[in-house]
Amino acid sequence: MTPAARHEVVLRLDDVSKAYSGTLAVKRATFDVRRGAVNVLVGENGAGKSTLMKIIAGVEQPTLGRIVLDGETVRFPTTADAVAHGIGMVFQELNLFGNLSVAENVFATREVTRGLRGIDHREQERRAAALMERLQTGIDPRALVEDLRIGQQQLVEIAKAVAQDARILIMDEPTSALSATEVEVLFRVIADLKARGVAVVYISHRLEELIRIGDYITVLRDGRITGQAEMREVDTHWIVRQMIGQDAKDFAKGVGHRIGDVVFEARDVSLPRATGGLAVDHVGFDLRAGEILGVYGLMGAGRSELLDCIMGRQRLATGSLTLDGRPIGHLDTTDRIARGLALVPEDRQREGQVGILSIAENLTMASLYRYVRGIHIRRAAERQAVAGAVTDLTIKAADTDLPVSSLSGGNQQKVVIGKALLTHPKVLLMDEPSRGIDVGAKADVFLTMRRLAAQGLGIVFVTSDLEEVMALSDRIAVMSNGRLTALMDRADATEAKVVAASAAGHAPTTPRPTAPAKVSA
Amino acid sequence: MTAVPQPVPSTGPTGGTMLLTLMKLRTFIALFAVLIVFSFLAPNFMSAANLILMSKHVALNAFLAIGMTFVIVTGGIDLSVGSIVGLCSMVAGGLLMNGLALPIGYTLWSSVPETVLITLVLGILVGAVNGLLITRLNVAPFIATLGTLYVARGAALLMSEGRTFPNLAGTEAHANQGFDVLGGGRFLQLPYSVWTLMAVAVAAAYLARSTPLGRHVFAVGGNERAAGLSGIRVDRVKMFVYMFSGFCAAIVGLIIASELMASHPATGETFELNAIAAAVLGGTSMSGGRGTVGGTVIGAFVIGILGDGLVMMGVSSFWQTVIKGLVIIAAVVVDQAQRKLQQRVALLQVARQS
């Protein structure tokens, strides 16, 4: 299916590749952005959507390939160059100055000045107020951004991009924190921009949204473009098929080991959200020894927060937790680790590892007490443990005394997993264990999970990857809006059921009848 | 390590790794450079008497710098050490000269060992206040210790209304004689203060390298969130480093009071800056996670010898200040260059092996 040229191509990424240390995020992608249309980009987490957009916005430079704007090859060494060419971007992670007012944020780097008399705050506020009016938000342009709700902040970010009068406007998950009515307003604004000939690039996970407002769709998988079509020619099934692909990933097969007794119980776990409501809403589940429980859900469904509650990182969390029949709800993180809980966090750089310490020091960080006599770290014992972990997890490192940041993403992830395993946990919590690592390392990680489960470890793993949750789990839990909306055995689960449960409680879905999916393995 | 087959080592040290080794040893090189330069330029510089005198001067800064190193490695800063030196020296002096006057009209006299103990505990307590402000009340380390800098200095001045305690010899009646041993005593020609420094430095280096607590200090400084998630009690680690820094400052307060046999409330002003300078010169990273006790001690020697040597050469003290500043800036510039080079070499190694 090739899109008909109803709209003129304004920008083309021509055969673009982007390599980071250790991974290839985008592989030879050719992507057209058409004027006066909404160009939708979809793909699973880590498929390379955000990287592609960062290349257009000048945040990243392509390793190979070129950018063609209005028929001419251009380079955007900095974001300023991209802005000068009329490219605006609404970033997924909000790029706002919390300590400045809404108007100051909207006009950051493009301040309205009156010569030597400095910034014309009144004019900026007037224009910002007009923008807010257009977005029907009612946000005071003088309010500090940090005082706004996340949804309102997202609207400010959108207003900032709209104010640039961009010819090409990239929106990376603009609705992730918006309410249903705010989404409606945004869609009206997008329709308005389209009418004025602006090319909108729209990234989202919410398929119903895409189908509603998209004109062209491009699907990315593992950094490759797997499908390009006009939106009216495709349906959800087509999109999902392109996203997931026919070729199954290399999931380790279960070895049919015995599942043991209940080792961990969570009851009524709740966590208040800073902006009101509950981030985790009365979630409860059991976990048996040797069982892999997959927790599926969209971004912001409360999955990571649930793991945080279990690890004791949230002081405001309520509910009861039992490990091996003993309550652990009153313990701090250190004691929970000592009792047999361990977490592999989602964000490796920020929470998983200490980048400047060595591979060995990172591996033994959580289990140091095991190699200590009195106050002395027994080097021999420590080195033995490190060597064991390196072999077990097939960590590819020249020297374990090198800083952990010198490793590739997949090997860093293995180090973080190794750190958790060296504490000899009974229950292992893994938050997006395959995020941002290459295919080979993914296969190793999945294999490790299987092997650990076979040894009697209980594993809870969180993922936004439907295929992963279907292939690896013994049971599947689905979260949506902080609630546990489904908990089913793998045998009873279908992709349709899982997806339906993950959307429960969200904005009204499209009237399109959801035919029973036949894609499950 | 044993588990992975070692790649064949690259053929000989390349230019990059040579330069890197030189940069890593820069503090050593600087130390030898100042020693050699001054042994030519300043008469009597290398005499035993002068070296011992210099080591006595250096020891004071080295104590503070060792404590400071641990604080900086966790990503913090301790500006209060100079004031703790002053407060501790005043408390020790006050106890020895005037005793502790109880409100019931009776004066309590402490022996010299008791006085030393009380003073050390006081230093640790001030450090604990710093730690509590930082961990419990979330005050930024710079501000928290700036606050205690003023409070401790003010308390030192209040103790004597700003006057000096002139005579700490003690009396036989109060059984508190012999305070001069700490600052004036010698063993095998070396002053006790230098021996104490060796003991503290060795203990601190052991702590940093071979104990879980030391490892935790580095982990907290490298990535606090990851450390916490690995089961390290971050707050306790921070409490420890500020208490240890206070302990080191108390030692310095005692040594100064004992050397002078008098305590003055302004003792230790700007000592914190010299301590930070020594730590930075020794390779401690202000952003946390990196630093060694050995490097810091050498850094303290470089600064101290530079100062004393310039005095012996007759350079004006104004120029000394300028030179000290330039040396510190140069050290940090080289440190940055080293880090960049190190990253390149590490990447090269990774690229070669794959």
UniProtKB/TrEMBL annotation, chain A:
Main location (coarse class): membrane
One GO cellular component term noted in the UniProt record for this chain: plasma membrane
Domain ABC transporter: 11-247, 264-506
Xref: CDD domains: ABC_Carb_Monos_I, ABC_Carb_Monos_II
Keyword terms: ATP-binding, Cell membrane, Membrane, Nucleotide-binding, Repeat, Sugar transport, Translocase, Transport
Similarity section: Belongs to the ABC transporter superfamily.
Name listed for the protein in its UniProt record: Sugar ABC transporter ATP-binding protein
Organism: Lichenibacterium ramalinae
TrEMBL record, chain B:
Assigned GO CC terms: plasma membrane
Keyword annotations of the record: Cell inner membrane, Cell membrane, Membrane, Transmembrane, Transmembrane helix, Transport
Family matches, as InterPro entries: ABC_transp_permease (IPR001851)
Localization: Cell membrane
Short name of one Pfam family: BPD_transp_2
Membrane topology of the entry: Multi-pass membrane protein
Keyword Transmembrane helix appears in the UniProt entry: yes
One of the record's GO molecular function terms: transmembrane transporter activity
Presence of keyword Transmembrane helix: yes
Domain of life of the source: Bacteria
Spans through the membrane: 28-46, 58-77, 84-109, 115-133, 190-208, 239-257
Stated name of the protein: ABC transporter permease
Source species taxonomy: Bacteria, Pseudomonadati, Pseudomonadota, Alphaproteobacteria, Hyphomicrobiales
